[in-house]
Amino acid sequence: MKYLLIMQVNQEILDALPEDERKLIMDGHGEFMKTVQDSGEFILTQALAAPANSTVVTGTGGTPTVTDGPFMEAKEFMGGFYLIDCESKERAIEIAKLIPDTRIKGLSIEIRPAMFTCGADL
Questions:
Q1: Could you count the other beta carbons within 10 Å of the beta carbon of residue 81?
Q2: Rounded to an integer, what distance in angstroms lies between the CA atom of residue 4 and that of residue 112?
Q3: Residue 71 has what pLDDT?
Q4: CA-to-CA separations, 67 to 54, 57, 58, 94, in angstroms, rounded
Q5: 16 and 93 in contact (C-beta within 8 Å)?
Q6: What stretch or stretches form a coiled coil here (predicted)?
Q7: What's residue 11's pLDDT?
Q8: What is the pLDDT of residue 122?
Q9: Distance of alpha carbon 13 from alpha carbon 105, whole angstroms
Q10: Could you report the average pLDDT of every consecutive run of 10 residues in the chain (122 residues)?
Q11: 102 FRET partner, CA 20 to 30 A, in 3, 73, 81, 108?
Q12: In the 3-class helix/strand/coil scheme, how is the chain assigned residue by residue?
C-alpha cells in the first residue's frame, strides 16, 4: 500500500528554532531517507516552496480564475511529502515517527493512503 507522508510546516515554529536544531532536522531528513531507501519502502520525496509562491486556478463554472495565493488563515501548510510503499497503516505510522519534524512541538506529519498512482517511472 502506498502512503503519502505530508509534512505540515509552521514557519513561525521553524524560524524560532536555534540554528543547531534546524541543522539536526535537515540532517535527520537525510538519515530518514537513507533508512526508508535501505528498507525498500521509499518511492519519492518533494519539498515545496511556501504558499506565498503559489498560484491558484479556481473553477468558476465557466472560465477558471487565476489568483496569487493561497491566502489562508492557518499558519500550517504542506511543506513537502514522502511517498512510501509499505505493508500496512501501522508500518506507515512507524515510518512517519522517524521523520525528525515529529520531535518538534507544533509540527506534524499527516499520513494519507494513496488511492491511485501514475507516473513515468512508477
A1: 19
A2: 5
A3: 62
A4: 9, 7, 8, 39
A5: no
A6: none
A7: 86
A8: 59
A9: 8
A10: 93 92 93 97 92 84 81 73 96 96 92 86 64
A11: 73
A12: CEEEEEEEEEHHHHHHCCHHHHHHHHHHHHHHHHHHHHHCCEEEEEECCCHHHCEEEECCCCCCEEEECCCCCCCEEEEEEEEEECCCHHHHHHHHCCCHHHHCCCCEEEEEECCCCCCCCC
The vertex-14 CA angle with 83 and 109, nearest 5°, equals 30
Chain centre to alpha carbon of residue 36: 15
Q: In angstroms, what is the C-alpha Rg of the chain?
A: 16
Q: How many CB atoms lie within 10 A of CB 93?
A: 14
Q: Nearest-CA neighbor of 6 among 112, 106, 87, 85?
A: 112
Angle at alpha carbon of residue 49, lines to 40 and 116, rounded to 5°: 45
81 forms beta bridges with 6, 46
